[in-house]
Specification:
InterPro entries: OMP_efflux, TolC-like
Family: Belongs to the outer membrane factor (OMF) (TC 1.B.17) family.
Low-confidence stretches: 16-35, 39-50
Mean pLDDT: 83
Main location: membrane
Strand content: 15-25%
CATH topology of the largest domain: Outer membrane efflux proteins (OEP)
Number of domains: 2
Protein name: Outer membrane efflux protein
Coiled coil: 228-255
């Protein structure tokens, strides 16, 4: 019965070690996340032609180019790849190792004896002892914390003189299977696999940081895009105002020539034209500034050809009032915000670290057990046959207890991990509060901008009616050019404000989607995660 047990133990150990050596031990499936940014829309395809003067871009295309080219995004992707390597490093703790060792010893010692080799002698004779050793060990750590090893050793010895040895030279070998299992400190499935769990969570944290950066970049792009559109709309309004002033100047010149208007009216009209020319110049400069802001976020300025080309935004501001429920919006944000997900994972990691540190408070209690088969022969084959014949065998069992006195280092590490876990939980609660405040703020902005759009539209309509009335009064001589110019200026200001309100509404919608964590969904941009086992 004992022989069967030994045979099973040895066979199992050899099989396990061989498996560990020739294959990577499977430690569970791993989610390897690959972040992919879809190609830009076909209409935004850019041919690198030195004659390129214009680039037509939608807001979606602009966001995609920014996600592709932004340096912060690139750094976040590299951090995610670094986390993949950390997972591999932690899993490598369970990789088996093969150790090979060879040793040769040749000793010749003087014999201080009258009896050498069974014969009497009066001279100092040498005693020759030659030994050659070869040793191979396969060893691996397994997820329970145990160290499993299989060792094969063969020793060749030649002795001269040798009157009493049965074999000379002789080959002695043994094969030994051994396992050392920690029972308290350092033992258990969780303790030994938790570094892998933590590394995988760190990978997810890196991915959440990547998503968070993608949301920030997307929000910055939509703000820069709409500010660029706003600058172009402001230029249109300024040019319209200039056209009205030039039309008034033309009419005044005609009336002065026919004698129905005083020459001073021409001066007022020319002053109005000059003022509006200055506004147009400022608006044109603002367009270039806002265009550079957009190019900088998209990192297009890095390319000399593209940076010289003019961006033509294809999306126009569109006002469609929406109804936003604060509670539902907050709920979505709590589920979708990657920063909150990252903090929750950090809290989970802190909890696992606390559990690991608690394990390290225990004393060390290790159990070691094994079986050894020994053989002897005048050749290697004979020694091996003797070893596997099970004629010479033994087993050993050891129980080792190690009690740290004081254990201050482990206790301090445990207390520190508990504080870190508490800190992580507070960070989660703080972020939740920040998200609630942020969402409520952007919901108010959206609602306010809806009211602003309606109010500025009404103000523009009234300014148009006032200008129309002033022009009618001017035509019949009941008012002056100065009043008409003032009415034109008021209309231009009302048009500026109306355009500004709509653009602010578009920006606030983007800000709200960013606060919800859904801005990429709105623009149909996906960060794909392909899970591989």
């Amino acid at each position: 019965m004992i022989t069967k047990y030994k045979r099973f133990f040895l066979t199992f150990s050899v099989a396990l070690s061989s498996f560990l050596y020739y294959q990577n031990i499977s430690l569970g499936s791993e989610n390897t996340s690959k972040v992919q940014i879809p190609p830009a829309a076909p209409q935004a395809d850019i041919e690198m032609d030195s004659n390129l003067k214009f680039i037509s871009l939608s807001l979606q295309d602009s966001i995609i180019y920014a996600l592709r080219n932004n340096f912060d995004i690139e750094l976040s992707k590299l951090n995610s790849k670094l986390s993949d390597q950390d997972i591999t490093i932690e899993k490598a703790r369970f990789d088996p190792t093969l150790k090979l060792e060879g040793n040769i010893e040749n000793d010749e010692l003087p014999i201080n004896s009258r009896l050498v080799g069974g014969l009497e002698t009066t001279t100092i004779s040498p005693f020759v002892d030659q030994g050659k050793t070869a040793d191979a060990v396969i060893q691996s750590l397994i997820p329970t914390g145990a160290t499993v090893s299989v060792e094969y050793n063969i020793f060749r010895e030649f002795v001269d003189p040798n009157p009493f040895r049965l074999l000379n030279p002789s080959y002695t070998n043994y094969i030994e299977a051994k396992i050392t299992q920690p029972l308290l400190k350092g033992g258990g499935w969780f303790y030994n696999r938790s570094p892998i769990y933590i590394a995988r969570n760190n990978k997810k944290i890196s991915l959440s940081q990547f998503k968070s950066k993608a949301l920030e970049v997307s929000d910055s792009v939509q703000e820069a895009y709409w500010n660029y559109v706003r600058a172009m709309e402001n230029l249109k309004v300024a040019k319209k105002s200039l056209e009205r002033a030039e039309d008034l100047l033309r009419k005044n010149k005609i009336q002065v020539e026919v004698g129905t208007l005083a020459p001073v009216e021409i001066i007022d009209a020319e002053s109005g034209v000059a003022s509006r020319v200055e506004t147009v110049i400022s608006a044109e400069n603002a367009i270039k500034d806002r265009e550079d802001d957009l190019k900088r976020i998209m990192n297009l300025a890095d390319n000399e050809i593209i940076s010289d080309a003019t961006i033509i935004p294809t999306d126009k501001p569109f006002f469609e009032p929406i109804k936003v429920e604060v509670k539902d919006t907050i709920k979505v944000a709590m589920e979708r915000r990657p920063e909150l997900t990252g903090l929750q994972l950090e809290t989970e990691n802190a909890g696992m670290q606390t559990k690991r540190r608690k394990n390290e408070l225990y004393p060390g209690l290790d159990f070691t057990g094994g079986v050894r088969y020994t053989g002897l022969g005048d050749e290697v084959s004979g020694a091996n046959d003797s070893t596997f014949s099970e004629a010479f065998q033994g087993e050993f069992f050891t129980l080792t207890l190690e009690i740290p006195l004081g254990n201050r280092s482990a206790r301090s590490a445990y207390n520190k991990s508990k504080l870190n876990e508490r800190q992580a939980r507070i960070n989660v609660r703080k972020k939740e509060l920040d998200i609630v405040v942020e969402v409520r703020e952007f919901v108010r902005q959206v609602m306010t901008n809806i009211e602003r759009v309606n109010a500025t539209r009404k103000a523009r309509e009234l300014a148009e009616k006032r200008l129309e009335n002033e022009e009618k009064k001017f035509n019949v001589g009941r008012t002056t050019s100065l009043e008409v110019l003032r009415a034109q200026e008021n209309l231009a200001l009302a048009e500026f404000e109306a355009s500004r309100a709509i653009i602010d509404y578009e920006i606030s919608l983007g800000n709200l989607e960013k606060a919800k964590g859904t801005i990429l969904d709105v623009y149909d941009i996906k960060l794909e995660e392909e899970s591989e086992t």
